[in-house]
Amino acid sequence: MRMTDRDDLPGADQRAGATPDEPGATTPEDAPAAPPVHERWWWTGTFRAVLGGVVVGYQWPVLTSGEATVWNWVLAAVGAAIVVVGAWLVLSAYRRRG
């Protein structure tokens, strides 16, 4: 079964560059695997900071229009707190990694 129309072209299985038969060439099995994104030092804090920024950004038009209720302000404050916690997590993870 063909996956795409390009599978039947000559050389579809070959990649450009060094082949495993050449001296010094590495295969994907030889290359060190990068850790998954969620295990990298910056991921948790950055994700939280961005999430908090999105919450604040979503509330911003209502807050600046003068039509905001107390709950809009509460939600924006929670988003801002999440941004601060996320930034603190990134900074502390950066200090621990080095």
TrEMBL record:
Comp. bias regions, Low complexity: 22-32
Keyword annotations: Membrane, Transmembrane, Transmembrane helix
Domain of life: Bacteria
Transmembrane segment boundaries: 70-91
Stretches for region Disordered: 1-36
UniProt protein name: DUF2631 domain-containing protein
Organism field: Actinotalea ferrariae CF5-4
